């Protein structure tokens, strides 16, 4: 077996792995990148890109065939950026094959041993099927297969009311499907309930049936007719079933034990520097069991590049990481929710709110559903919840504020074009400061005194 020596070996060519490989090789490191499946990973091929393309097509009023043509065209347009050819052009050696560890610094792939100074595991995650009686015998879709459907489902059943479940409910309802979503607990359970309620009301108004606190205990049937039985005995029948109940880390077959890398059902165990129990091996993205977002993997790639290339003690943060749900209206969150902020700071937290109904651009475009709430502690935002049109775009301002630990006065001081949805952030900051200025007796005394001496 031949041996190749390199500085960095990256396993997995999804968002995180590609970011590490591109960054490291362009700064002078020797890099080997190993990928068993499609370049671009889940995000490009079966996740973020196709789902957002399908949502756009559905909201634009395309029919089933045109919408799926748009999905394929979108993937094809982005694919060259993640391709083998591009990365080989950058100087990365790309190996298509399945890697497995043979030692603490070595992996084997296609009969070759790669010996590296540092190894990065970025293998992502796979759909996790819940423990439901009969489910293993029922044809079911996941995010990896739903975009390949040749024909429109008559009635799509969706298990799970998380981001994948609700986004696919939105898209397929707009494409003419009957849609029923079954959630064992609460829809979008980690997000602000008040904001989630706005999203659910909009989906229900468009004809999506959403049932919360309704665990499914049995699945049965075959192609074209699938029946789900709930814990209370209700039976719901549809033509297709999408399982969107979570994901599991993709660690099977890596032989992590041979490298001294500890992993459990939640993923590879890492410290704040994203090092595994073998400190020469880092793990980033979904495979660590943390927040499962493309932008998190990209951020973590930057953290470990600083450590691997420059020896800097870089640590990963999580308090400034945003996420978004791309339904209509959208929902976005960064930092603490209201409940989390009150649990942490008690009476020391203040909530600054602004409604889309008070935003002139929202009124002009008829998109007045939603609000912004900002959680403030000692004059600094510690969290922001946005639900409304373009929330996924607007949360970036608050992600910047939390990342830089800025005071709310920085937001109050910005000037934004009129009329824009972005004014809602300035409005919320104004709501926070208004009583401190307008209801402050000291301020009023100072103003009156100054007026008496001004010429």
Automatic annotation (TrEMBL):
Keyword tags: Disulfide bond, FAD, Flavoprotein, NADP, Oxidoreductase, Redox-active center
Cofactor dependence: FAD
Family matches, as Pfam families: Pyr_redox_2, Pyr_redox_dim
Domain FAD/NAD(P)-binding residue range list: 7-301
Domain Pyridine nucleotide-disulphide oxidoreductase dimerisation: 321-428
InterPro entries (alphabetical): FAD/NAD-bd_sf (IPR036188), FAD/NAD-binding_dom (IPR023753), FAD/NAD-linked_Rdtase_dimer_sf (IPR016156), Pyr_nuc-diS_OxRdtase (IPR001100), Pyr_nucl-diS_OxRdtase_dimer (IPR004099), Pyr_OxRdtase_I_AS (IPR012999)
Similarity comment: family membership: Belongs to the class-I pyridine nucleotide-disulfide oxidoreductase family.
Protein name stated in the entry: Dihydrolipoamide dehydrogenase
The organism of origin for this protein: Sinisalibacter aestuarii
Lineage: Bacteria, Pseudomonadati, Pseudomonadota, Alphaproteobacteria, Rhodobacterales
Gene designation: merA1
């Amino acid at each position: 077996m031949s041996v190749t020596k390199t500085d960095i070996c990256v396993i997995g060519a999804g968002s995180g792995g590609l970011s590490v490989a591109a960054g490291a090789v362009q700064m002078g490191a020797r890099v080997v990148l190993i990928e068993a499946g499609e370049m671009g990973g889940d995000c490009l091929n079966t996740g973020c890109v196709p789902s957002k393309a399908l949502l756009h097509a559905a909201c634009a009023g395309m029919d089933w065939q045109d919408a799926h043509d748009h999905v394929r065209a979108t993937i094809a347009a982005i694919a060259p950026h993640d391709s083998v050819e591009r990365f080989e052009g950058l100087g990365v050696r790309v190996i298509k094959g399945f890697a497995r560890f043979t030692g603490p610094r070595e992996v084997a792939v296609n009969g070759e041993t790669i010996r590296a100074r540092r190894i990065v595991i970025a293998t992502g995650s796979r759909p996790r099927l819940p423990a439901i009686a009969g489910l293993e015998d029922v044809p079911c879709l996941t995010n990896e297969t739903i975009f390949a459907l040749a024909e429109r489902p008559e009635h799509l059943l969706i298990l799970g009311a998380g981001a994948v479940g609700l986004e696919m409910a939105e898209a397929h309802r707009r494409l003419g499907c009957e849609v029923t979503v079954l959630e064992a607990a609460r829809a979008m359970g980690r997000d602000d309930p008040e904001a989630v309620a706005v999203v659910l009301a909009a989906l229900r108004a468009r004809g999506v049936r959403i049932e919360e606190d309704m665990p499914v205990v049995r699945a049965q049937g075959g192609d074209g007719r699938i029946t789900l039985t709930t814990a209370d005995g209700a039976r719901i029948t549809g033509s297709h079933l999408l399982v969107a109940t979570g994901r599991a880390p993709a660690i099977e077959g890596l032989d992590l034990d041979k490298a001294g890398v500890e992993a459990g059902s939640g993923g590879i165990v890492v410290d704040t520097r994203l090092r595994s129990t073998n400190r020469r091996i880092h793990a980033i993205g979904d495979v660590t069991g943390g927040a499962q977002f493309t932008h998190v993997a990209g951020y973590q790639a930057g953290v470990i590049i600083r450590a691997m290339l420059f020896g800097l003690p870089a640590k990963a943060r999580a308090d400034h990481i945003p996420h978004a749900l791309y339904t209509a209206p959208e929902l976005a969150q960064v930092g603490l929710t209201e409940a989390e902020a009150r649990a942490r700071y008690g009476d020391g937290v203040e909530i600054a709110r602004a409604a889309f109904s008070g935003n002139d651009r929202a009124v002009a475009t008829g998109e007045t559903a939603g609000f912004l709430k900002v959680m403030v502690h000692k004059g600094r935002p510690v969290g922001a919840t946005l639900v409304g049109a373009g929330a996924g775009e607007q949360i970036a301002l608050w992600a910047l504020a939390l990342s830089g630990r800025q005071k709310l006065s920085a937001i109050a001081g910005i000037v934004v074009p009129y009329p824009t949805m972005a004014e809602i952030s300035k409005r919320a900051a104004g709501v926070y400061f208004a009583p401190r200025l307008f209801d402050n007796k000291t301020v009023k005394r100072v103003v009156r005194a100054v007026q008496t001496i001004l010429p």
